[in-house]
Amino acid sequence: QKFVYDFTEGNKDLKDLLGGKGANLAEMTNLGLPVPPGFTITTEACKTYLESGSEPAELRDEVSAHLDALERKMGKKLGQADNPLLVSVRSGAKFSMPGMMDTVLNIGLSDASVAGLAAQADNERFAWDSYRRLIQMFGKTVLGVDGELFEDALDEAKAAKKVASDTDLDAADLKKLVATFKEIVKAATGRDFPQDPREQMDLAIKAVFDSWNGDRAKLYRRQERIPHDLGTAVNVCSMVFGNLGPDSGTGVAFTRDPASGHQGVYGDYLQNAQGEDVVAGIRNTVPLAELESIDKKSYDQLMQIMETLETHYKDLCDIEFTIERGQLWMLQTRVGKRTAGAAFRIATQLVDQGLIDEAEALQRVNGAQLAQLMFPKFDENAKVEQIGRGIAASPGAAVGKAVFDSYTAVKWSRSGEKVILIRRETNPDDLDGMIAAEGILTSRGGKTSHAAVVARGMGKTCVCGAEELEVDTKRRRMTTTSGVVVEEGDVVSIDGSTGKVYLGEVPVVPSPVVEYFEGRMHAGADDADELVQAVHRIMAYADRVRRLRVRANADNAEDASRARRFGAQGIGLCRTEHMFLGERRQYVERLILADTDEEREASLKALLPLQKQDFVELFEAMDGLPVTVRLLDPPLHEFLPDITELSVRVALAEARKEPHENDLRLLQAVHRLHEQNPMLGLRGVRLGLVIPGLFTMQVRAIAEAAAQRIDAKGDPRAEIMIPLVGTVQELELVREEAEQVIAEVQAQTGVELKLALGTMIELPRAAVTAGQIAEAAEFFSFGTNDLTQTVWGFSRDDVEASFFTAYLEKGIFGVSPFETIDKDGVGALVRSAVQAGRATRPDIKLGVCGEHGGDPESVHFFHEVGLDYVSCSPFRIPVARLEAGRAAA
Ligand code: ADP
Ligand code: MG
Ligand code: MG
Question: How far apart, in whole angstroms, are the C-alpha atoms of residue 252 and residue 491?
Fold first, then answer.
């Protein structure tokens, strides 16, 4: 096993082994771009180290060999007194984890070599500046010294000299600062700052390994669902210097705008600085375009390289670069993060440029991004009080109470408050606050600042660099230039698409993408924005290739019509229990209370025309498309009043000697129907078999509604679905009765009816005996909510609050099985039931209804096991269409 790869040995496809940064440094090296030489220690080495607690023995030798080679190539030795080679030790996991892991620059500097560096560069100030940076970074990230101690000392040095910028400190000041920094290290750790360059390097490598298991890194991985066992690679890269003077500098850039996708020059540049300075927002950067007038040659070269990278990666890339005395060096590139809107635009732009095809375009976007684009925006016509404007870093409209620290953000959001986290700038310590907040607002930093990068990654609204806002975290308030004071708890609204900040709550309106799906905006129209056009095109690609059909869960004509506008190809689940609420509840009550057949029949008779009318409307809204109607499913007591309320009412009436005959009967019924485990009790098909006339009334309503629609020249395609079947006998009994009713309706109306009858597969027994059940079912709809409950033995209503958090934290599952289908367990049952069902009845129709039908990952699974359709709530339909297309492309 080889643990170390030279940059010339790797390539971009080795991310598992070399991490993203290492793989891309190798790729750029092999593209012939100017990358400072170096090597990458593999993630395997990290894993071995983390498992055994010490580095593998071969690692040390391999590192030595690669260091030797590097030293020979560079013509200097690591930390050599008169002519030192300096390196950076950089973390880099497979997935980028902004700010999570630690990087140390200028390794190899010591009391001995600092003079050598000064001589090499003919610049004493630079050498001491580099040394103080090394002690600062190394002290903080490797030795665990509180970083503020260094920052305070730096501030003191500036204050003593009455200067604002660290560039105003001269060699002598920095030399003094180095001495102070060394004292800080000694005081905090009880040891001297290590002077041996190889020891510095080895300690830094270990620190990178260890940072994989740091709390922040773990939290980020949980958030982003990155597995915990990947490990990080470590890159050792020879240093180039952006802090050598005004002809040097460092910057970051995107090959196109990560917010809009537009091509152009996007980035920030900072003269006379080292890499970290740009991101940290220590000094104000200039827009990248200004580099053209600062250093035309490097600028032109950079533009050329960016074009090379885009054509090579066929995607938006972000890059880090440094200019050392007019010589440009590439320090990092990766396929860049982008907003949801930009993802859609860039995908279609790249198709137009001929760089990718439609199938690839589908892989460049995803359902989560589409869902994000369907979020509402602020109402443009609302009266607003704008109090500031920053950079639109991550889109969305967020409203919440101002909080100024992460702790409060978490605390308030736990108690149900919506909060906006306001900071001067964020750092990795703010992560839990950022997660808890509706949105993030900072007064400093650009599009590449920590807040912006992390918020975009989380899909959270963010406005950064709102400079006219003076954020005072100590006093928990912010002041605007015009003197408005926002205290903790005051409501603010931030617009991540425009960068505007408002005082108070701004009303929100639907997104243009939803307007488009609703048919209120046409992609072809002149005023349709680029985003809508891009979404329109991508949806067309998806619809063209997908095999899964997408239906809606809808119980009324209004939802059905909306679903249809959103692209639904029918209704996969109409829950009839929703038709028994409101004023109809009284009939259900009477049905439940009925002592005699007459009473029962009377209430069923009252319900029949109401049900029928519901179905007429539904079939009309879905004319020509299938509508699956599920017969009554929930336990009856759900239709009865709350037991405590009712008891109180009865007791009061008794005390007051008022009549309470009816309530008393109700109370008795509630007691009679009470079940310990209602989800496993008298519900679904069991109701139909136990309460005479209930299911036949529903079937009659469906049949009569269908007949009426046919009479009106409509095309109703009703499918009758029996819930909670465990054995084929249950289904056969219901089927016999249903067929009889349908025959009666046909005879009465003279209309020929074709009604399909099928069942839900939502009990393990049904899944296991699916082959038998298919004898009596023309279709299966997998009810994966109940199936998950019954396969795992989880009560969905209880587990999320009780132990799921612990399970997620312990990594027993990465995501709730109610959110994404558990492929190995529940999924395996679905898979075998699909096969068994088709074996019995080759033309059986197979679908899924329930939350999983609109979950991206689950949709891919349902495609793979060969279902015919998924059904989900109307709003998720575009997401399901897109994901079905992505699964098939
Ligand atoms: P991160 O993953 O946090 O971006 P990096 O490893 O990319 O960490 O390094 C942090 C900063 O230091 C970046 O701006 C990077 O460009 C700069 N940097 C890293 N290695 C070198 C080097 N060898 N020479 C000059 N600058 C470097
Ligand atoms: Mg970087
Ligand atoms: Mg169910």
Answer: 34
